[in-house]
Design goal:
The complex is a heterodimer of chains A (539) and B (333).
Chain A lengths: L6 H6 L28 H6 L21 H15 L1 H9 L11 H6 L6 H16 L1 H6 L10 H11 L7 H5 L6 H14 L5 H13 L7 H19 L14 E4 L3 H4 L3 H15 L3 E3 L15 H18 L3 E4 L3 H15 L25 E3 H10 L15 E4 L2 H7 L3 H10 L30 H7 L1 H14 L3 E4 L2 H14 L4 E4 H8 L17 H9 L1
Parallel strand pairs in A: 1-2, 1-3, 3-4, 5-6, 6-7
Helix pairs in contact in A: 3-4, 3-10, 6-10, 8-10, 12-14, 14-23, 15-16, 16-18, 17-19, 19-23
Chain B lengths: L5 H21 L3 H29 L30 H14 L1 H4 L2 E6 L2 E6 L2 H19 L10 H10 L11 H19 L1 H6 L2 H22 L5 H12 L12 H16 L7 H4 L30 H14 L8
Antiparallel strand pairs in B: 1-2
The chains are: A mainly alpha (539), B mainly alpha (333).
Chain lengths: 539, 333
């Protein structure tokens, strides 16, 4: 990992003034801290992708196949024919500049090629030269550019400095979605075998074992047993969740990050405690043990392969519907792609809460409900006994995870839940929440150690908004509904606002949840004493 | 100052093109600039425009990739943002209308600044304001020009003219739309030249149409107020074009008119091959013209590929012993 400057130094040295030279003439720097390591051969082989052997982005010569130009041209052409979005987005940008300062990576790095308009222009310039009449005739006057090996390096650099969060799209007068452009750019790089390991390893693991982390079924069960032991210690209640149980009413799927590491594990404990309190007839699956889908960051086909497990498992187990945990791009895939790719899910029923009888018509076709929708409905119908004072040591703010907030519009449900399980909730400034939310800076496969410099910079806008509510209200807990957030925020907060912790919404729910037959709770899910914290907050 | 001066090339190009038309008309090529080129331009425009739209339409929209800006449709006690996060066609239509008529997304624009240790956002209205001034004044100018192509002049054209000229400055009266058009185009141009970020990514293709439009507006204003072109003769020519009985009026209409009509022809012919196609493309943008009802209704991908998946059977085959050991049920003992 490269050296990262001190926070004050970093922020003071961000320069948003672009260089005087035109972007086409500036060679893209491949610097430590801004690029991810290439995918390992074994992971590429599992997915039957081209494995170019050992290489580093810092190498002068990259391991391109001999006919690389032809591959790119054909791949580009194929995608233009398959996606109207790509064609339209290549043609209609007027470079009005509305998007230019909307990207968290631009804000944090000041690198002008991180302006969404320029990021897209990296691809667009090739499109113009190779696929438009004006570009073929007028070349650079029409904004065309020849495809060179440097272009490929530039693509690799900047398409992997985009977390596909789509914030720029909100401000674009034509809704040009840079995520769509980046996805195509990454697919083209994938055709050449140029992938990053932090995406490809989860993809390969997920394909084989069912989850990103390669956790095998017995290990999954062991982890869950371990977490239920903790729950028993805190609540006195022993939970025995079922695995791969046929005939369960509901299949519950969450990202593996939730049962892999803190603070995700507390959220996972929260789910289990909620289900136990409700007496829900649900099961976990070891085969479909992953909600997240890193295929989204690779290619449409890969996304489909990984996502297929959800419906396949629901069908095999004969469940009525699927409940999904707190995860960002998992919900992007479910909302925008799953039913189209792997539906129809006609072997299931329109989701209906067995506790309240509420029918989730907004999920009538996908048959999959977001857990905050489910819990908000429970609270609305007074089905949960809650003691929000157990969260009194927390002053909470909420991070709208990019994908559920911008792609779905899941904004009020998590807020409703939080406000009912916590006494202290504060919003971050309005330009940084809801659809204008800022990415954690580590999305779309950029959550690795080697790009820590980029992550801390990309996470600056989010962290700065958190800092604002920390200073104004004493906020000390950042709640989110995404497992990548829960992995990305601890180091981000540690760097920018060390006083603030990270939590999932259902950790807060479980803290407040009064379960039948529980012992008097002395600690929250993190084994932090409830009493002492109260005393502190009285000061 | 070594900033990007690519706009100078566009300016130069427009000046040279103007001189060509001026000289051409002066040496007796009126028919070329007044009849042949306008017809060709309109032909290129229609064929090019239709071709582009059909080309876009030919590519499918495999996935619903709506970008939403508000609360999804949920339980009835949660208020949906019906326009910003539409789940019905009506909602989509209203969303599109607000976008196309009022430039709603641009209205949202903010500017980021790092002040000391704080990242601050400021609502900025200028881009929205310049853009809306530019587009609406252009629209009014275009509608006003219908007077040259139809006889009798339709009621709405005369009324619009009356409103447009209501300040009654000079004789013939100054049209507000012309002034606003030049002003807004100039502001958009200055924004591109003077703001470092804009300058960084602006290229000839961004400057050229702005200079061309300013050229069109300026030649128009010059003709009306300074060279006082013979409007009756101009109308004779334009009506001739519109009725497919083209002809150059006796005695001529002055070379400036040919510069004007040449610029217009260039702009019209340029549209299908340039970023000005956003006028058609905005209707086809899949992030904006789709309802966010993805979870409610199934959407079909016409090329949905069949992919190799890792089936449960393969999975169990691999992990059967471990599953059994952990007490997890299996299909085959």
């Amino acid at each position: 990992m490269s050296e990262v400057p001190k926070p004050d130094e970093l922020i003071e040295n961000i320069d948003h003034t672009p260089p005087e030279e035109e972007w086409e003439k500036i060679e893209s720097p491949i610097t430590e801290g801004r690029f991810s390591y290439p995918a390992k051969g074994k992971n590429l082989e599992v997915m039957e992708f081209r494995a170019p052997g050992e290489w580093s982005p810092k190498d002068e010569e990259w391991p391109l196949p001999d006919n690389w130009q032809e591959i790119i041209h054909e791949g580009f052409k194929e995608r233009l024919e398959k996606y109207r979005s790509l064609k339209v987005f290549m043609d209609i940008c007027v470079r009005c500049g509305a998007c230019a300062d909307k990207c968290h990576y631009f804000i944090g790095t000041g690198d002008p090629k991180n302006m969404p308009v320029v990021r897209a222009e990296l691809l667009r310039s090739i499109y113009r030269k190779d696929f438009t009449t004006a570009g073929k005739i007028l070349g650079s006057i029409a904004g065309g550019r020849s495809l060179t090996k440097d272009t490929i390096k530039e693509w690799f650099s900047y398409f992997y400095q985009c977390s596909e969060c789509r914030r720029c799209s909100v401000f674009c007068p034509y809704g040009i979605d840079t995520a769509e452009v980046t996805m195509m750019g990454r697919e083209l790089l994938n055709l050449l075998g140029l992938n990053i390991n932090w995406i490809m390893e989860p993809v390969a693991n997920c394909f084989r074992t069912g989850n990103h982390l390669g956790i095998q079924p017995q290990a999954f069960k062991e982890i869950v047993d371990f977490l239920t032991d903790d729950i028993e210690e805190i609540t006195g209640i022993k939970i025995n969740p079922s695995f791969n149980r046929k005939g369960a009413e509901i299949l519950f799927i969450t990202p593996s990050g939730d049962y892999f590491a803190d603070p995700g594990t507390y959220t996972f404990m929260g789910y289990l405690m909620l289900f136990e309190a409700l007496g829900l007839d649900y099961t976990l699956s070891t085969y479909a043990s992953e909600g997240g889908n890193f295929g989204l960051f690779t290619s449409s086909d890969t996304m489909k392969k990984l996502n297929s497990k959800m419906y396949a498992e629901a069908r095999r187990l004969g469940v009525k519907w699927i409940l999904g945990g707190e995860c960002g791009h998992m919900w992007r895939v479910i909302n925008q792609y799953m039913d189209t790719m792997n539906g129809p899910a006609d072997f299931m029923e329109v989701p209906k809460s067995p506790i309240t009888g509420t029918v989730f018509n907004n999920a009538a076709s996908t048959k999959m409900v977001h857990i905050t929708e489910f819990t908000a409905d429970l609270i609305r119908h007074n089905k949960l006994k809650l003691d929000p004072s157990r969260n009194d040591s927390y002053k909470v703010t909420f991070h709208d995870s990019c994908n559920p907030s911008r792609a779905m519009g899941l904004l009020d449900e998590p807020r409703y839940v939080i406000q009912n399980v916590c006494n202290n909730f504060y919003e971050m400034p309005e330009n940084t929440i809801r659809e204008q939310t800022f990415c954690c800076g580590s999305g779309s496969g950029l959550n690795n150690e080697e790009v820590m410099d980029l992550r801390l910079r990309g996470g600056l806008p989010r962290a700065n908004a958190v800092k604002h509510v920390y200073e104004k209200y004493g906020v000390n807990m950042l709640a989110c509904i995404c497992a990548i957030d829960r992995a990305a925020f601890p180091p981000l907060m540690e760097y920018w606002v060390p006083e603030v912790g990270t939590t999932g919404v259902h950790e807060l729910v479980a803290n407040a949840l009064v379960m039948d037959g529980e012992i008097e709770r002395t600690t929250n899910l993190r084994f932090e004493p409830l009493k002492e914290e109260e005393d502190e907050s009285d000061e | 100052m070594s900033m990007n001066v690519s706009y100078l090339y566009s300016l130069l190009a427009v000046i040279v093109l103007g001189l060509i038309a001026y000289a051409g008309a002066a040496i007796g090529l009126e028919a070329l600039f007044g009849i042949v080129i306008p017809y060709l331009a309109v032909l290129v425009f229609f064929l090019g425009f239709i071709n582009k739209v059909l080309d876009w339409a030919k590519s499918p929209v495999p996935f619903r990739i709506t970008t939403t800006c508000g609360q999804q449709t949920s339980q009835d006690w949660i208020k949906q943002s019906k326009i910003d996060n539409p789940s019905t066609t009506t909602g989509v239509i209203i969303r599109m209308l607000l976008e196309i008529l009022l430039f709603r997304s641009l209205f949202r624009n903010t500017r980021v600044e790092i002040k000391g240790k704080t990242v601050a956002y400021k609502w900025v209205v200028w881009l929205w304001l310049f853009a809306i001034m530019f587009h609406y004044s252009f629209l009014v100018v275009v509608i006003r020009h219908l007077r040259f192509f139809v006889e009798p002049v339709p009621f709405f054209v005369s009324s619009l003219e009356a409103v447009d000229g209501m300040l009654q400055i000079g004789l013939p009266g100054l049209f507000l739309s012309g002034v606003v058009l030049v002003g807004a185009a100039t502001l958009l141009l200055l924004r591109r030249i003077l703001l470092p970020k804009m300058n960084y990514f602006s290229r000839p293709a961004d400057y050229f149409p702005l200079f061309l439009i300013i050229g069109i507006a300026l030649t128009g204003i010059l003709m009306r107020h300074f060279t006082k072109v013979d409007v009756v003769k101009v109308k004779e020519l334009t009506l001739g074009l519109a009725s497919f009985h083209p002809g150059i009026p006796e005695g001529g209409v002055g070379a400036l008119f040919y510069v004007h009509i040449f610029f217009v022809s260039l702009l019209v012919a340029y549209i299908p091959f340039s970023k000005i196609m956003h006028m058609g493309g905005v209707f086809l943008s899949p992030t904006r013209n789709l309802a966010n009802n993805n979870r409610m209704k199934r959407h079909i991908n016409p090329w949905n590929p069949s992919v190799k998946i890792h089936t449960y059977e393969e999975y169990e085959e691999h992990f059967r012993d471990k599953l059994k050991e952990a007490g997890i049920p299996v299909e085959k003992e």
